[in-house]
């Protein structure tokens, strides 16, 4: 083999060096690189899982948000309807109260008018009675005797008292 230019010791040395180099590379380079690659793969898988979970949570939160918004709108509509109903009821109460107060005012006014009318009638009847008595006295004094005057006067007073 030496004639062919092949040195068996050199080949053995190179094979030995190759195996030592392979051993050293495997121990100090390949294992840490493979461990780092495995770690990155695991981290990537974990990241994908977390992303999926976050998307699910986001979808769930979006659904809850939509449900809450819908419920809020329903509640707001219900509150508005209640407020409108209460407002209408309050308006009716106020209208009835105002109507009642106006009727009370009218009734009091009518009562006052009746009382004033009664007072005026009483005053007028008293004045008419006095005037009639005075006229009767004047007429009677001239034409009747004292006994007749007294009798006519008493009858007139009785008649006026009966009318009053």
Could you describe the 3D structure shown?
With about 160 residues, this protein is an all-alpha fold. It has one domain (about 10-164). Helices cover about 95% and strands about 0% of the residues. The chain is built from 2 helices and no strands. It has helices at about 10-145, 145-164. Helix 1 (about 10-145) packs antiparallel against helix 2 (about 145-164).
Number of helices: 2
Helicity level, as a percent range? over 70%
Q: First CA to last CA: what distance?
A: 173 Å
The whole-number mean of residue pLDDT values reads 87
Biggest β-sheet strands, sense, barrel: none
Number of domains as seen in the coordinates: 1
How large, in whole angstroms, is the Cα Rg?
63 Å
Q: In one word, what is the shape?
A: rod-shaped
For the secondary structure, the number of strands is 0
Structural topology:
Elements: H1 8-143, H2 146-163
Helix pairs in contact: 1-2
Task: Describe this protein with a few key phrases.
single chain; 164 residues; mainly alpha; 94% helix
